[in-house]
Amino acid sequence: MPIGDTVPLTAIRWDDILFVVLAAMLLGSALLVVTMRDIIRCGLAMIAAFASLAGIYVLLGNPLIAATQVLVYIGAISVLVLFAIMLTQTKNAPARLVFQTQAWAAALAAVVIAAVIAISVTATTWPSAGAVAWTDTTRVAELLFSDYLLPFEVVSVLLTAAVVGGVLLARRDPDENEEDRP
Amino acid sequence: MSGSLDSYLVLSGLLFAIGTFGFLGRRNAISMLMSIELMLNAVNLTVVAFGAFVKPLQTHAAVIALLVIAVAAAEATVGLAIVIAIYRNRKTPLVDEYDSMSE
Lengths: 182, 103
Prior knowledge:
The complex is a heterodimer of chains A (about 180) and B (about 100). Chain A has 2 domains: about 1-90, Up-down Bundle (Four Helix Bundle (Hemerythrin (Met), subunit A)), CATH 1.20.120.1200; about 135-175. In chain A, about 65% of the residues lie in helices and about 0% in strands. Chain A has helices at about 15-35, 40-60, 65-85, 105-125, 135-145, 150-170. Chain B has about 100 residues and is mainly alpha-helical. Chain B has a single domain (about 5-95), classed as Helix Hairpins (Orthogonal Bundle). Chain B contains 3 helices and no strands. The longest helix of chain B is centred in the last third of the chain and has 33 residues, at about 60-90. The radius of gyration of chain B is 17 Å and the shape is elongated. Chain B starts with a helix and ends in a 13-residue tail after the last helix. The relative contact order of chain B is 0.13. Chains A and B meet through helix 1, helix 2, helix 3, helix 4 and helix 5 of A and helix 1, helix 2 and helix 3 of B.
């Protein structure tokens, strides 16, 4: 049995409820990422932020980007960040001070950026902002391998260079002393 | 609410501002990299939102979002490798203790 567009007995649309819930999860977990003291918990909150953003991509009618978000961000980047956190944990962690001494200036800058974006977005009339249309994945694939073939190949070279560079940077020197190891 | 471009753009702006605060305010280098990831996600949300609401941009937006995700993955790899390499020399992940590059 299909469910209707709106919540039964009310005029609220399901999409609106989903958007509000996902947006609240996204902003809440993003705030936790930048404010929590324990950095491992920051990494876990970052996974929650990525997951709610994947939900928002589905709401925007783009399941391909949502799937990529889950695979790349939750599957790969979060694991990489968590590994890096565990490799750089100091003995006296978490540090006493989470923020720089000039964090108030950073907060001021963030508030100004948010206000400027919000005001300029709401003051602009966007052309043809109609209903959300579902993205055709076949056409995305065709476009990726025709008009965007050069960027695609450049990205593949970039990824190879990043893998080689990452290994080279994070590698231990072979002649490093044994007692220097953390 | 979910049917207007404005709400998605404001959401993305708020996420970008949170990322900016994290990047400028946190002491830990890995926290700063996580904040950069949040900002890249905010930009991607803007691209996908424009694609969903403006019909001629739709497939282009999806392709650009895919490319941004790939570049973000490369950036995270190299950034975290640099942090680990500095940590091995300095024994701290806190950026305000990296006051000189050589020593």
